[in-house]
């Protein structure tokens, strides 16, 4: 079992930046691959990014690559998502998730946080 708590969301103007954090507790964080997903009102949950347990391999949704950067600090049990040049269409509830391999598919992640809201104004 692992517990995940996201933070760092908020209201930002278009073109601004935010860094989301996801703090893990419980089982050893470093054994898990991690992912970020987001869900906008009225839309399905969508893949944002995923990272392997060591942080060596990262993958992004094609539309977000270049603006978002995923990273992790296994010593601090924390996952990050740096988001730059934010756009109104990035407005969503952002979730972190833990699983046993990198994946773009939400169902492949066993543990989820409660989410942190990101709102980008135009």
Using DSSP, what is the number of strands? 11
Largest sheet: 7 strands, mixed
SSE run: EEEEEEEEEEE
Q: Give the count of helical stretches.
A: 0
The helix/strand class is mainly beta
The radius of gyration over CA amounts to 13 Å
Q: Can you tell me the overall shape? A: globular
What's the end-to-end separation, in Å? 40 Å
- Please state the oligomeric state of the protein chains shown: single chain
What integer is the average pLDDT?
96
Low-pLDDT parts are: none
Strand content: over 45%
Helix content: under 10%
Explain what this protein looks like in three dimensions.
- The protein is mainly β and 122 residues long.
- It is 0% helix and 53% strand.
- It is built from no helices and 11 strands.
- It has strands spanning 2-7, 10-13, 18-26, 33-39, 46-51, 58-60, 68-73, 78-83, 92-99, 109-112, 116-121.
- The strands form 2 sheets. Strands 2, 4, 5, 6, 9, 10 and 11 form a 7-stranded mixed β-sheet that branches. Strands 1-3-8-7 form a 4-stranded antiparallel β-sheet, with no helix packed on it.
- β5 and β6 form a beta hairpin.
- The protein is globular.
- The chain starts with a strand and ends with a strand.
- The model has no long low-confidence stretch (mean pLDDT 96).
């Amino acid at each position: 079992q692992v517990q995940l708590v996201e933070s760092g969301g908020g209201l930002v103007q278009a073109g601004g930046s935010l860094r989301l954090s996801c703090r893990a507790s419980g089982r050893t964080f470093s054994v898990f691959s991690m992912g970020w997903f987001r869900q906008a009102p009225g839309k399905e949950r969508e893949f944002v990014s995923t990272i392997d347990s060591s942080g060596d391999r990262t993958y992004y949704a094609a539309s977000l690559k270049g603006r978002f950067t995923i990273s992790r600090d296994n010593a601090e049990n924390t996952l990050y998502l740096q988001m730059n040049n934010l756009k109104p269409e990035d407005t969503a509830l952002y979730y972190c998730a833990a699983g046993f391999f990198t994946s773009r598919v939400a169902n492949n992640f066993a543990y989820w946080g409660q989410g942190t809201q990101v709102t980008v104004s135009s």
